[in-house]
Design goal:
By secondary structure, the chain is an all-alpha fold. The chain is 74% helix and 0% strand. It contains twelve helices and no strands. Helix 6 packs antiparallel against helix 7, helix 8 packs parallel to helix 10 and helix 9 runs parallel beside helix 11.
Length: 306
Amino acid sequence: MTALASGPPETAAPTRGAWHVVAPFFAAVLATVAAAAIYLAFVRTGLGQVVDTAAMRGADVHHPRVVEVLNRTLNGTTLASLVLVCVAVAAIGILRKRVDLAVGAALLVIASNGSAQLLKTRLERPDLDDFPAPNSFPSGHTTAATSVAFALLLVLPYAVRGLVALIGASYVTVIAVATVWAEWHRPSDTVAGLLIVLAWGGLISSFLRMGRYRVRGPLARPNRLAKVPLTVVGAITAAVGLLGLVAVALSERVSADFVSGRFAFLTGSAGITAAVAGTFLIWVRLAAGDQPTSGAAGPDEAAAAD
């Protein structure tokens, strides 16, 4: 009887503490450091530029349906779509009586995309790979797509967040890979876009948690519908991308015929997929920790939280 009265272990008692507020900020710092490291490794070094450019120039996709999907996805990510999403996010937040989430989500979209555009115009790209081109770091398309998905995950009810996370991750992956296929961006540009959005998301999430620090009730946990697939896909593609990166680097330094251009593109695509899975996995957890399972969240949302 005592066990029944105490309830499930994951909802038995509040889990708030100083770390609850600090964790998203810590994630934001790590994401910022990671983005800076990506820039230094793949933009400021000769080998990094050569490997990155090889992945971009190795795309060789001629299948009509694949090309059509990539073109439509790229063309659909516009400034107008960002404005519409901001309006939709604000409306959802207001309908759920969570103005703080609406403001936070809108700020996430604006700050992420503003930062990406500012960095693209201010950062330098030395010509170290004999492929002169203006700086494209970070990817604006990837930043836009990721910020839209993150904003929706922040304001939507818990019951649908798992499904939305998987759809959003798939959409962002297609966008990021498509920009490399179209030779608009290198893989490092897209990964940087992901990290910039995660950095802003962590910072905003920390402030949101600070504002609701005294709200009582157990916290909702991340939805398993999103956690398991993202973890599995991320682990597999990270391993493939790392091994491929080593092979491409060896090809550039030891034997030019060691791997093909298509192999380099697929390696970059695997790395992008792993980065998307990782950032979404972190954001699903940060977004889930904002709201308790009692009080502001309804019983249906609490039941769907884990």
